[in-house]
Amino acid sequence: MIDLQLLDKKHDESRQGEALVLDAPTGNASRKLYIESYGCQMNFADSEIVASILLDQGFETTGDYKEADAIFINTCSIRENAEQRVRNRLSQFGVEKRRNPKLIVGVLGCMAERLKSKFLEEEKLVDVVVGPDAYRDLPQLISQVEDGQKAINVLLSREETYADIAPVRLNGNGITAFISIMRGCDNMCSFCVVPFTRGRERSRDPFSILAEAQDLHDKGYKEVTLLGQNVDSYKWKGGDESETAAVAVNFAQLLEKVALISPELRVRFSTSHPKDITDEVLYTIAKYDNICNNIHLPVQSGSTRMLELMNRTYTKEWYMNRVDAIRRIIPGCAISTDIIAGFCTETEEDHQETLAMMDYVDYDFAFTFSYSERPGTLAARKLPDDIPEEVKKRRLTEILLRQQESSYKRLQENVGKTIRILVEGKSKKSDADYCGRNDQNAMIVFPATAEIQPGQYVNVYIERCTSATLLGKIAD
Ligand code: 5AD
Ligand code: SF4
């Protein structure tokens, strides 16, 4: 039953580097934009802001970079291989650029921020480099390039949240959408480059978040995912809009306000931080049926010594206590996580503690990584990257295998039951099947029938499962 092919699949791996296009072309555009995104969900949400800004400049999207007037690549720096992937892609775009010297090639996002002007020196075919807080400057930067210059803006901001820019939905299914509720990160985990590439944490005003969620609901969307590097520290200090609304809002309160838009609108969120997730958030999830029972709670390691070196600011016992609270307050809640194998000085005992933590929590899903040293981070400056590659790899495989057992066990609990799911569309593997997710974020595949449309909630009887998917049929 164990399918080794699935071991390495990240949930959104299939979206990496995919061309992002509008469902309906505007029709009156004069220039074609090709945009692709790498990395986290936040980057995908940012690409929708970028597209919104560029559509206002007379661009329309294309799924074929060979016919584009401008190519933008929204990049990720989280691990070295993410950066390598982008460089490989840039050399492919370079072939096109040599053929068509008027083509504009732009680099957006975390790599742009990390490498700054070095990018223009290293990658001669890149014309424009734009950091995550500078997308409003794109029209001006593009005209600079059209005047024959290279252009760069990598200024980070303490305020920018793009609150007033309505994202255009790219590659949308018209059913599920992301809403970015905050930007940046103040946590300074020692392995992580994000605080350097995305800057200081800031929360977007709740009025524009609610307006965006309401607008999606009005357009027929059935699920929103609230995004932030650390949603539990969402904090709106009050002010703006009307006097009555000008009170402070924390994450639990924001979650409740979004949930109240409609019981038919599902609400998800990511990412939670073990040090910040409160019982108030857990009680809010328990209170509303439409807030999904699925918490992404990255543990990183099960060893307190490692957690300290990682500057995660919690202990193994603290994390277990948070898991106990989730199990107590929201029975049946799915918990997923991120785990890093082979961080600096990790011993075999530390690694065993991570496996023991996995046994304790029995995660529904885990994103697992081998430690990759990132220049400029606290770990790169202070700690030795001393675990040999083959040891990292072996520990990672042990973690993956342990996770696969857990995922399978969790999914197996659904077999023989009827569960409610939101139909998202045709299954990737077959047009004869639909797919959708349950409250816990498990993927369900079942034979399509004429009466059922994407966007509907349906009851599916689960017949069997693999370690990644539930398979069933429509219940009568
Ligand atoms: N090496 C490996 N994994 C990392 N992550 C962040 N930085 C690194 C790194 N330098 C992982 C963490 C984080 C997830 C988004 O990526 O697990 O939670
Ligand atoms: Fe990186 Fe830690 Fe912030 Fe997550 S919480 S983005 S791992 S610094």
Automatic annotation (TrEMBL):
Its cofactor is [4Fe-4S] cluster. Residues 31-147 form the MTTase N-terminal domain. Residues 171-409 form the Radical SAM core domain. Binds 2 [4Fe-4S] clusters. One cluster is coordinated with 3 cysteines and an exchangeable S-adenosyl-L-methionine. It is an enzyme of class 2 (transferase). One of its GO terms (molecular function) is tRNA-2-methylthio-N(6)-dimethylallyladenosine(37) synthase activity. Its EC number is 2.8.4.3. [4Fe-4S] cluster 1 binds at residues 40, 76, 110. InterPro entries: Elp3/MiaA/NifB-like_rSAM (IPR006638), Methylthiotransferase (IPR005839), Methylthiotransferase_CS (IPR020612), Methylthiotransferase_N (IPR013848), Methylthiotransferase_N_sf (IPR038135), MiaB_methiolase (IPR006463), rSAM (IPR007197), rSAM_horseshoe (IPR023404). Residues 412-476 form the TRAM domain. It is found in: Cytoplasm. [4Fe-4S] cluster 2 binds at residues 185, 189, 192. Its main location: cytoplasm. GO terms for cellular component: cytosol. It catalyses: N(6)-dimethylallyladenosine(37) in tRNA + (sulfur carrier)-SH + AH2 + 2 S-adenosyl-L-methionine = 2-methylsulfanyl-N(6)-dimethylallyladenosine(37) in tRNA + (sulfur carrier)-H + 5'-deoxyadenosine + L-methionine + A + S-adenosyl-L-homocysteine + 2 H(+). Belongs to the methylthiotransferase family. MiaB subfamily. Monomer. HAMAP family: tRNA_metthiotr_MiaB (MF_01864). Catalyzes the methylthiolation of N6-(dimethylallyl)adenosine (i(6)A), leading to the formation of 2-methylthio-N6-(dimethylallyl)adenosine (ms(2)i(6)A) at position 37 in tRNAs that read codons beginning with uridine. This is tRNA-2-methylthio-N(6)-dimethylallyladenosine synthase.
